[in-house]
Amino acid sequence: MPKRWEIAIVGGTGAMGQILTKELKPFGEIIIISRSLEKATKFSEKLNARAGILNNCNTADIIIVSVPIESTSQTCQDLFKIAKPGSLIIDIAAVKSFLKEIKSEIPPHLSYISMHPLFGPEGSFSENNVLLVPIKGDKWLPVLQKLLKELKSITTIITAQDHDLIMSKLQVAHHFIYLILASYLGQHPISPNFYTRSFKKTLQTFLGIEKNLNTILDIQKNNPHAEVTRKEIISLMEHFISLDASKIQELLSRIEAFKSEYLNKKGE
User: What pTM, to 2 d.p., does this model score?
Assistant: First the structure.
């Protein structure tokens, strides 16, 4: 395959689609795909790319699907009908449970890799984690891994089932706590004169969450393990409602375990 490909980004006018366009431009000619050709043209002119609708994916070497989680499955199935033989389809959905439904529908002449960049529209591939779920076709995997290495990403291969389970502990739990905190404080207005330094940092974090709120809520809704995770968190909170000496000791022990597992490793 040539080093420079034709890369179609379905949903290229969205926030993540624009990041993908900017990051992947050195690797080929980018086609920004949208349901509205007018909208795609507007963004393509700004990003120095081509514009098109879904049918224009039929000449692309690589097709990246960057649409809402609930639209990913149908979009991929539509692409199966028009993608050229030998091409690669990549979805970047944050939930992978839909893959078991479409795996058998992938034509023999196409390759499919599910990808999850672990950063939002404010981030980039450089120095960030990217999860890869190979579904069909072996030839494209080393090519994609090499491309991501050039972008300085840290890649990990994982199954769809393990992906959703792990992300339920990280994304679902992490975001759920922020969502509940925001819901609680929204009912208890407090003057900024009382904001602590740490709370100001929390507000900055929530600003990032707000920018991706629709995606975050989609993950809460669609991750198959999300409800169990939320129940576990609520149960743990109830367990520590009464903080007597023994409960404080237990809590400190759990915090030490957290420090050992997360703070000392620092993502390594």
Answer: 0.91
